[in-house]
Design goal:
alpha/beta, DJ-1/PfpI, Protease I, Class_I_gatase-like, globular, Rossmann fold, 7-stranded mixed sheet, about 170 residues
Length: about 170
């Protein structure tokens, strides 16, 4: 039976870092539910290639309803990390459910204060932030931490990232 994957998203996400993992997860029989500031709102990717209608407002979701969390990169994580509701939601997955993060996605996890002691990767400039937050930064296409965090760097790494996240859900 398919799993329910929460995906936190707002404007200026990295288009393919949402569309590609979503396609891989859906093809594997899982359901991806987008969570943003307002249900029914349309958010646009930074390249203008993807438009997504938000399924649920952050006010209407609980971690318990989901099996995993997907955090695409782009400028979306930076906008979400200033909102305590998203930080609390992300914290609810820490050490108990898989978190899939690519590119700038770890910015949200850094602000949620859940990266200390974790093995992770990200786009190079976020690697410094991860180190400063106490994570072990490893510069490779996919890094799997024992806590369930699976992280990746850039769109070039999507094939390996998608394979890893689908495998993680069984």
């Amino acid at each position: 039976m398919g799993k329910k994957v929460a995906c936190v998203l707002t404007n200026l996400f990295e288009d393919v870092e949402f569309t590609s993992p979503k396609e891989a997860l859906t093809k594997a029989g899982h359901e991806v539910i987008t969570i943003g500031f307002k249900a029914g709102e349309t958010v646009k990717g930074k390249k203008g290639e993807a438009e997504v209608t938000i399924d649920k407002s952050i006010d209407d979701v609980k971690t318990e309803a989901f099996d995993a969390l997907l955090i695409p990169g782009g400028y979306s994580p930076d906008q979400l990390r200033k909102d305590d509701r998203f930080l609390e939601f992300v914290k609810g997955f820490a050490d108990s459910k898989p978190i899939f993060s690519i590119c700038h996605g770890p910015q949200l996890m850094i602000n949620a204060e859940i990266v200390k002691g974790k093995k992770m990767t990200a786009v190079k400039q976020v690697g410094v932030d991860l180190k400063n937050a106490g994570a072990e930064f490893i510069d490779k296409e996919v890094v799997k931490d024992d806590s369930g965090i699976i992280s990746s760097r850039t769109p070039d790494d999507l094939p390996a990232f998608n394979e890893a996240i689908v495998d993680a859900l069984g």
